[in-house]
Design goal:
The structure holds 2 protein chains of 2 kinds.
Chain A (H helix, E strand, L loop, with lengths): L8 E4 L5 E6 L12 E5 L6 E4 L13 E6 L2 E6 L8 E9 L4 E4 L3 E5 L1
Parallel strand pairs in A: 1-9
Antiparallel strand pairs in A: 2-6, 3-4, 3-7, 5-6, 7-8, 7-9
Chain B lengths: L2 E5 L2 E3 L5 E8 L6 E8 L5 E7 L6 E3 L7 E6 L4 E6 L8 E11 L9 E4 L3 E5 L2
Parallel strand pairs in B: 2-11
Antiparallel strand pairs in B: 1-3, 3-8, 4-5, 4-9, 5-6, 7-8, 9-10, 9-11
Classes of the chains: A mainly beta, B mainly beta.
Amino acid sequence: QSVLTQPPSVSGAPGQRVTISCTGNSSNIGAGYDTHWYQQLPGTAPKLLIYGNNNRPSGVPDRFSGSKSGTSASLAITGLQAEDEADYYCQSYDSSLSGSVFGGGTRLTVL
Amino acid sequence: EVQLVESGGGLVQPGRSLRLSCAASGFTFDSYALYWVRQAPGKGLEWVSGITWNSGNIGYADSVKGRFTISRDNAKNSLYLQMSSLRAEDMGLYYCAKDGIKYTISSHPHYMDVWGKGTTVTVSS
């Protein structure tokens, strides 16, 4: 059971918009700790997608965006493409665990 | 090109030890904290351990505390993870990752902007 809760799966058709939620509590996201997002394509290492809640590293398309509100964070993907099919993970810090925590991951399927 | 390359994984019996290495290139190694993150087969990501740029702060997940030891050699641009008393639940792909911020003082990652391809650890008799 992950401290950060993500839906196991989401899906969307090409061109559509999807969002992936990451729900925490007052010890992690709600305490003001930043949320970061990673994309893991099949058979590859994770790749940083969003850092500091809503910042994109160089090279990440602006179709990807992040937001945070209260005890939750969200990743939005617009103009869905087949190559976006992957697992997505959120990550933050938890003060009660005194450690870095990941969400359980969300598998995105492009229909 | 910024690169992290893990090595040292393999098949090991329960209770035995294994040492993982991570060779870095393409960035000022001694300016960044480094981490080990693992992924059990078919499962999600788990932060395992972290070490600051100057080895001044080291941290471990509760699941490995007392069994794993992280270290780094800034002269060799290398990160290590000494794993002992290995268990079946330690099995998985071990990634080396770099913090995105220089000179952090926490052993827990802010965010990890560079990852290696991973090395596989199999624990079985």
